[in-house]
Amino acid sequence: MNAEVAAATAAPEKKEFWRWQENTWYDESKNWKDAKIITCGIDVGSVSSQAVLVCDGELYGYNSMRTGNNSPDSAKNALQGIMDKIGMKLEDINYVVGTGYGRVNVPFAHKAITEIACHARGANYMGGNKVRTILDMGGQDCKAIHCDDKGKVTNFLMNDKCAAGTGRGMEVISDLMQIPIAELGPRSFDVETEPEAVSSICVVFAKSEALGLLKAGYTKNMVIAAYCQAMAERVVSLLERIGVEEGFFITGGIAKNPGVVKRIERLLGIKQIDTKIDSQIAGALGAALFGYTLMQKQAAK
Amino acid sequence: MITAGIDMGSRSVKVVLLEQIKVEGAKEPSFAVKKAHLMLPGDLDADQAAEKAFDAALAEAGVTRDQVKSIFATGAGRGQVAFATEGITEMTAGARGAVYMYPQARTVVDVGAEEGRGIKTDPDGKAIDFAGNEKCAAGAGSFAEAMSRALQLTLKEFGEASLKSDKSIPMNAQCTVFAESEVVSLIHSSTPKEDIAKAVLDAVASRVCAMVRRVGIEGNVVLIGGMGHNPGFVQSLKTAMDVDEVLLPELPEFVSALGCALIAAERVH
């Protein structure tokens, strides 16, 4: 048994390699108390939950954390995480919009909006009004969305039967290799020769195939590369079904994995629009922006 | 004469040693199962696992390697059994083993860890047709395993729990990953574990049944492979296939290894 196989087959450690780090950010140059309208978007995903605060239509802060086993608490905890840091109370927020897989479980939300609409709106804010094609890869879903210059959805496609080509696949590999998920992307390029993509589509099969590759003498980095390539090919086929227009933007956790992103760009022959904002908050940001629009409409009445 | 069949599955290795015995007046050769030995999951180095399982089986049976005339291998990892004389497909091995145990069987349902398949066989145990999963692990043991993990039940408790339910809750998700979330949602909506377990096994059974229908359900049905140990699944399968009886060997996971050893014996002649 070679060392890498031994490492991969050793008793699983408690350490959770597959989770992205929880993080909180807010714009220190501003004070939320100066804002006229404060809205919040909460995206309860299958793996992580994000709460985003928007002050007068501008991103102010966010908190990203894991989704617990109890959705109402995930939403509350995500929001509490940022409110505690900036000394805000729930009463200070004018409007809350829930989105994502657990959107109906945000107990204090005024409204629930689908994540497709929210991601398009969030992507429009993050990538600018040139964004036309959005690829959203979350924990268990993968969506290709077309939108107009206002971030309004014009068409979309998503995986509905199979989790291949979603973040879950990457989590499985990260866990199998015992390598933190954030390191997978860079390591996938640290190979002498680029291996063939993993051929299995199913997450369950791909895990067995990855083990087989390690046994056959592939290095961990090569297996990761083969897996990133497979994932890229998979989502590109989804994208091609709907068509890819210039103004390409990737949201969701996978956008943080350059191993997949760069391979997608290579296959499509176009580059995605860059942003400095954490791609995982796109859905919650869109939800908060929808909340802001609704408040403005109410004020106009 | 002693022959061996090694079934190198995706999760476990099964070894059967078979001794050909002379029975006075019998035209056909008779066999006695010398020893069956199971190597449980966990040992993922295929070469070593096969070697270890084989040695353990030899030791238990009190047979030396030199006494084994021929070793045939089957299963997804048959190519990795370096010491095997020959490799045969799971369909060939499964059909042969199933018909040896139940001569009246014509439809063989084989549900292992990552594979589910339906095999149509002739009276000699020759596979005529088959259909299996290729792209997706739903409809196989690992799916059920993942769900029992989500329910925090052992596989044994899981199968038994399912038998206690008479409800039919549809599972919408086919994919193992999606189904896990669905199971978690069901737990949160306070659905009893028994009902969830049944829903999961009904889903696997309906998926397996759809595969078997592609070859046609004919004559007696025999279930082989590790999922045969799950009584809830056996019940769900009966309902899904709409048959009165599913023939179930005591050690369903060894049937392919047995078929493999039988074929090894037949080909020596």
Automatic annotation (TrEMBL), chain A:
One Pfam entry name: BcrAD_BadFG
| InterPro entries named in the record | ATPase_BadF, ATPase_NBD, Benzoyl-CoA_Rdtase_bzd_qsu, CoA_E_activase_dom, Dehydratase_Activator_Redct
Mention one GO molecular function: benzoyl-CoA reductase activity
Q: Where is the ATPase BadF/BadG/BcrA/BcrD type domain?
A: 41-291
Q: What is its EC number?
A: 1.3.7.8
Q: What is this protein called?
A: Benzoyl-CoA reductase, bzd-type, subunit Q
Keywords, A to Z, come to: Iron, Iron-sulfur, Metal-binding, Oxidoreductase
In terms of superkingdom, the source organism counts as Bacteria
Please list the coiled coil stretches. Answer: none
Q: Which top EC class applies here? A: oxidoreductase
Required co-factor(s) are: [4Fe-4S] cluster
UniProtKB/TrEMBL annotation, chain B:
What this protein needs as a cofactor is: [4Fe-4S] cluster
The cross-references to InterPro entries, in alphabetical order and at most eight, read:
ATPase_BadF (IPR002731), ATPase_NBD (IPR043129), CoA_E_activase_dom (IPR008275), Dehydratase_Activator_Redct (IPR051805)
Q: Which domain of life does this protein belong to?
A: Bacteria
Q: Name one Pfam family in it.
A: BcrAD_BadFG
Span of domain ATPase BadF/BadG/BcrA/BcrD type: 5-264
Indicate whether Iron appears among the record's keywords: yes
Q: Which CDD domains match?
A: ASKHA_NBD_benz_CoA_BzdP
Keyword list (alphabetical) reads: Iron, Iron-sulfur, Metal-binding
Instruction: Quote the protein name from its UniProt record.
Output: CoA activase
